[in-house]
Amino acid sequence: MRRAQPFLWILCLCSAIATPAMADDMEFEERIRKLEQKLRDIEQEHRQPQGTASPATEGAESSPTSGGTALPDIGKDLRRPKQAPLSFSTGGSGTMIYAKPFVSAPKAFVGGYFDLQYRNHRKDVIDNGAGSPGSHPGIGSTNSSFDQQRFVPFIYADITEHVKFASELEIEHGIREGTETEVSLEFAHVDYLFSEPVNLRAGIILLPVGKFNLLHDSPLNDLTDRPLVNQYIIPTTLSEAGAGFYGTFYPGRQAKMDYEFYVTQGPNGYQPDGTARIGEASGLKNSRQRKSLTDDGFDNNRGKAVVGRVAYSPVLGVEIAGSGYHGTYDPESKRSLSIVVLDWTLQRGPFELIGEAAWAYMKNNSRNLDGTPAIDPDTGRLRPQRMNGYYIQGNYHFMPEVLRHWLPQRFSEGSTMTAVVRWDKINTNRDAAGGFGDLEQLSLGLNFRPIEDTVFKVSYQFGTRAFNPNTNQRIHDNALVLSAATYF
């Protein structure tokens, strides 16, 4: 701006010279004053970003001692440069449905994922509700079936630079009508971004209880079935309504630390008639808020739950995290459910080692609400108070060069194959030896990704200790599982 100043003064001088000689002296001086005022206005306008903040933005910028991270500039945080305020003044009854801010300035993105699987078991463990040859009397079960298990649309929106919205709608077994079709919001929340270390989140939140619950999408995982610990003890998907904070710190040159902390609705361990929802055969599946029978999804007690996860990465490719969940699950808010989880991710070249271990404690779950011993109808034993489990999985990513040479149009640089081995072990009743919830499984798999977003999987499961939910019996069962999944 200082370089432009002499030019403006020359412009003023030229304008003065060009004025006719007959012009009145007062008119000449008035023009000079106007040009000088215009010059001062231009100087002030260009100096503003480098100087002090204007009244509209004062306080929005960070101070030199605040770590250098600017807070949101609310005056500029709009969908578009000039946005009319929302009001009830819109006219025309037929057009009022279009009086939405996203119509004139769209910000939403729609995507999702889909999967299809085929299963073939040695035993009739698939409940089809219709009966089949060789099934148990009065029970509809089969050993093989196709299942379009999940169709999951995502809706994301960058409302402004600092306001984000994310949601996931899950439709399970969508080809079926009636009670077998599950439609629910997996999560739906709004985020307000203050800075990288501290951000606000509120809504239906995907709980940070372990890592798999946060990254459970079918196209993302290399095996079709979720780990046993994430089916029974951390029943994925685990989400609740609530609010809290999340962020990232950098404690060292290469180190990174992420955290999430929320206060949420909490679990529901009992039906309205007092029937328990936590058992050895089902684990913690039915205690989730999404399975609650309480009207309108309200809390079944006065207590709330707290949940958090802290993940530390000392170097790229290594992450170790701990998380915890604690809340009351009974109507009187006297019995607590606590879950502690350790998860890890180790990556080096084409090799990857991941896993998760969880411990759960349900205070006084072995007693009914009136204090009498609580017998589990599925097992004939006391209901469990303690559960634990883990999985450990190794992945090896590769792509034979001979395939790329033979069919470069099918096996491109973006294609990859993955060999997978996973060991699962859980015990949903540590208070008694054996039992239906003492499960073990070895899975061997191979998958092909033509691109990272799409995967075709094949795996074979050795169920050395399995459970038949149709007959409530411990069995030995193996299974061949084929599936396809893709983001869209």
UniProtKB/TrEMBL annotation:
Signal peptide segment: 1-23
Residue stretches of biased makeup (Polar residues): 49-68
Region (Disordered) residue spans: 43-87
Keywords for the protein's UniProt record, in alphabetical order: Signal
Matching InterPro entries: Porin_dom_sf
Top-level lineage group: Bacteria
Name listed for the protein in its UniProt record: Phosphate-selective porin O and P
